[in-house]
Amino acid sequence: MASSLPPRLLRALGRLNASYPWDHNAHYHRWIMRQLPRRVSSALDVGCGAGELARLLAVRSEMVHGVDSDADIVERARESTRAGAPVRYTVGDAVGELPGGPHQVITCVAVLHHLPFGEALTAFRQQLAPGGTLVVVGLARAASPVDHLLGLAAIPLNPVIGWLKNGGRRATSRPVAMTARTRPATMTFPEIRREARRILPGVRLRRRLFWRYTMVWQRS
To answer: pTM surpassing 0.90?
Structure first.
């Protein structure tokens, strides 16, 4: 759908995006926090990156475990977290080496498409405490007309949001999340929804702007 826009407009939007970059994942952090209890004993952030969400979770949790497979980014997360904060970072695989639970909260932002989908959701389910909440912000492969319309709507909005988040000033560097290794999503939203409902009965999923979807599940 993006290719239907005039080339000159696409180039102009590309220049604006480069001048005013912003973190699409952090954009959803406040929304994630609204899905969670006010106070929990243990939270797990899978694919924690530089630790931005883990540090937010620490405001509500007695202990936060952040896990990421990238040793360099985990070290950066440790350096960015104040001494004494209830956050523990681990370098490990997000399926086979999760910090021991059970956890009352598990979050996973823009990571699930890097993992074996069914195995990852099963591992999250096993690590989640009864009554606990799983929140996922993920990426899906655009396939349906709805997907393409949402993507088309996001193209002009993207630089506008970037301009606002940067206070109208050109950025001198990109957010850390934009420097991480990426992999295109291979599962479509209907495929994700079907598999998620099989593993997590009662899970709620929704397509979102800026090439994301959300998933929320509470364990009974």
So the answer is: no
